[in-house]
What does this fold into?
Amino acid sequence: MLKENDAARETLNVNTWHNAGYTGKGVTIVLIDIEGKARENMRDYFFDPLNTQKEVGHASNVGFTAHEFAPDVRVLAFRSRQESFDWIAAHKDDVDIINVSMSGMGTVPVPIFSQYEKLGIPLICSSSNDYYDDKIAYPAAYPFTIAIGATNRDGNKAASYSNGGATLDAVALGIVYVQGDDGRIWPVKGTSFATPMVTGMLACYIQWRKERGVPTLAPEEARKFIHENCKDIEEEGFDLASGHGLFCLPEIVPEKEDIMPRIYISPSTQEQNKGLSPFTNEEEMMGKIADELIYLLKKDDRFLTRRNATYMEPYTIASDSNVWKADLHVAIHSNAGGGQGTEVYAYGPGTNSEKLAKALYAQIAPLSPGTDRGVKFNKGLIEVGDAVKATSCLIELGFHDNQKDAIWLAYNHEMIADRLYRGICDYYGYKYMAVAVAAVVGPPAVPVVDKKAQAIALIEQGLKMLKG
It folds into this structure.
């Protein structure tokens, strides 16, 4: 690493993580960029899987920058082409993070990048260098990406050229030093190089996660980590010029529990809601499902969990969730009123609440016996609306006054919990680590007695006794 970048690493707390052994080891960064093959001094870590890079160029300096902040990372360079996406999609389990430092695409969407959303890999993109105060360039303008701008040399003010806007996530230092094969060292500047600075820092964090059994960093987790570790350099809190501020790694390397998602499980406390037999009441049935779900989340070992108490009312539950600082809040209910099937309530369209609701619905709806009712929006519900600070939704698993739904709800607690667990994993992009295997069941079967066979057996038994 270059001593010329020591001050930058110190400012961003990178040295603390390097000294603790977190240098991006075992982490793979993909670059989507323009021309840039490896210099001779980069051949140990910079690779071109599709053999499309012919000259040293922009991508070379981007890759060099990422390596300066994660010296044990592996960098794979690609052009912005369909064949690149196809290769990445085929190897997505081996890719940890994607860096896009291609600037100057303007404010017109770039369709080739929209397909990257479905990969579930953090996409770190430069906001571009167009001197716009409130206009992020694509692909950084896509809501599924993480948009990074640049600061001045000292990191105490957003650079004038760095595009700002309402979707800017953070900024990083706008100047970094690179080295040619002839030994010459020179500075490069712009959002193109602030972005791999962030990507390299995230690589150190991803190594830390992998070594603690939390291998996947989902896009929204990456965004949350960045936001929570920003320092204000402009206005307090969010501002258009610097987003949430200057991104720095935590000053102290955290414990595992510090980054585990906090999942608040809130089964219904409506004991008075009786159902058709064998369903007893909503509080008891939902509570049993919640207990099974919490067991799976704890077994998974990547989540912290808390559940409400049966005496709590909705506003008390919301307060308890907020005090605990939940990341997700999942309310579990059964329905009534003569209908059938599953429905999930979310805060509104385009929100993380909708994403969570869709993930749960996709797991539960195919298994519930009734005609399902979809994802709906109702922020007037206490545990879905503004009273809860966490990303939240409320699932109505089925109708306890519908006989088929009531039987399904009463006899499939483990299976329903298993599917809710999978939905939570899907929201985070996690693999299922604690899958419970439970077949869908109905009421216990009534034994059928063959009276003729029983009579014959008794006669044979009697004959044996006589012969004895």
Observations:
- The chain has two domains: 3-254, 262-428.
- The first strand starts at residue 28 and ends at 33.
- Confidence is low (pLDDT under 50) at residues 437-441, 443-449.
